[in-house]
Amino acid sequence: MNIVEKIANAGVIGAGGAGFPTHVKLNSKAEYVLLNGAECEPLLRVDQQLMEYYPEKIIGGLYEAGKFVEAEKAIIGIKKKHKEVIEILNAKIEEMGLSGRVEVGILPDVYPAGDEQVLVYELTGRVVPELGIPIAVGCVVINTETALNIYNAIRDIPVTMKYITIAGDVPCPVTVKVPVGTPIVEVLAMAGVLDPTAFEIIDGGPMMGPLMKDVGGYVTKKTKGLVVLRKEHSLVARKKREMKSACNLNKTACEQCRMCTDLCPRYLLGHSTSPHKMVRAVAYGAAADENVTVAQTCCQCNLCEYFSCPAGISPKMANVYFMGKLREKNIRHKSNKTEFKPREMREYRMVPSKRLIARLELASFDKAAPLDAEKEYMPEVVGISLTSHVGAGAKALVNVGDHVEAGQLIGDVEEGSLGAKVHASIRGTVSQIDGNYIVIRRE
After folding, report:
1. Structural domain harbouring 276
2. What is the pTM of this model?
3. Boundary (domain end) residue, out of 93, 124, 154
4. Residue environment code for 131-145, b if the CB has 16+ CB neighbours within 10 A, otherwise e
5. What CA–CA distance (Å, rounded) separates 110 from 355?
6. Same domain membership, residue 207 and residue 91
């Protein structure tokens, strides 16, 4: 059994993004394998601490992935501010005898340094084409926690645990290790939040994470952070803005300054992304046709909405509006460029993380969220999602009343289809199978 088969059997998916199955991503040849340890979302603290506590496993997982795709080099992307972690990584690389094959790549402390295409450029100098993915320029990108899961998968250990930062307006910001499927309310309680109904909870980071509609859910394989904010916080109001009100505001309040485009990370990489033009197109009632397909090049990082725009309108929402309309008509952007190079002003227009955090009114919450690497929480009940990954949902292999062991395969996908296997995270009895979840009660 090769490494990709082991990764597939372990149910490894992207641990910090959309949840793309890792065995599919590695089923290609590349010149570089890149570790995305930027963790550019404000307040989140998972990746930096995993690299500090488990450097050998993370380097090992990255190196093995790189060896399989026949990469010439593996590069760990980490922000320059994490000096102690960088020293740990460099020392471990030398100790493991991987100097020259694995190296640490230093990233600026800007947002969004962790955007896949920004990361590729910063570490290799290559620009991914519009609507392209990193493999188009010979790169494969994996998340820090994903590399750790790859290391475990090679040793036949499936994905059953998750690392999560709980931050924001909480008594005790903390990063925890919990079984996949742990109830969200129990995770929030670890940071001292005993009454979640008094707050709004962001599922992920403050920039791209959505507000949770129901805190009665469970941790999934791709849960990265839970950011707790008071209901009256300005960021909460922005995230609650609906498409209709956003479009009306864009029509009436746009100052025609084009700052949303000038600071756009994809525009600065040389793409044709132009949110200010999409705002105008919405205002003038433009049709969803080939003239507005540049909307599809938006990465939805929200920098234009939460930082760039001096009028507080919603340029990203204009992009999303046209994305939806174009999807309905099955119209896809076709670039008239074959080569892309960053715009000359790029290095002067990148947004420092500290300035972003201040603009978001999160500076008072920008604190350490320590991880106790030895402590594992064990809930009484877990609800394990069969659909938290990209692709086809897994089909349950167990029935109500069945006894399961931690690590047992309980959900599978058809061979050859895009999807990921699902494993029990605790020992217990299946108490419920409800749509997309398998609920297990601990014994």
Report:
1. 239-354
2. 0.95
3. 154
4. eebbbebbbbbbbbb
5. 9
6. no
How far apart (Å, rounded) are the C-alpha atoms in residues 163 and 142? 16
Cα Rg, the chain, nearest whole Å: 22
Find the farthest-apart pair of alpha carbons in the chain and give their distance in angstroms, rounded: 63
**Count of helices and strands (H, E) across the chain:** 17, 17
The owner of tokens 């590349």 is 30
User: What is the DSSP pairing of strand 32-36 with strand 139-143?
Assistant: parallel
Tally of CB atoms within 10 A around 181: 27
E runs forming strands in 361-412: 381-385, 395-396, 403-404, 409-412
Q: Is the separation of the CB atoms in 190 and 174 below 8 Å?
A: yes
Rounded Cα distance, 377 and 134, in Å = 36
Same domain, 373 and 386: no
Nearest to 237 by CA among 166, 314, 310, 173: 314
Residue 80: half-sphere exposure toward Cβ, Cα within 13 Å: 9
Q: How many domains does the chain have?
A: 4
Query: Chain-wide mean pLDDT for the chain?
Result: 96
31-76 pLDDT, tens digit per residue, is 999 999 999 999 999 999 999 999 999 999 999 999 999 999 999 9
208-247 pLDDT, tens digit each: 999 999 899 999 999 999 999 999 999 999 999 999 999 9
Rounded alpha-carbon distances, angstroms, from residue 12 to 70, 394, 423: 20, 13, 11
**pLDDT tens column, 132-146:** 999 999 999 999 999
Contact 222, 229 (CB under 8 A): no
The answer to whether residues 383 and 185 touch, using CB atoms and an 8 Å cutoff, is no
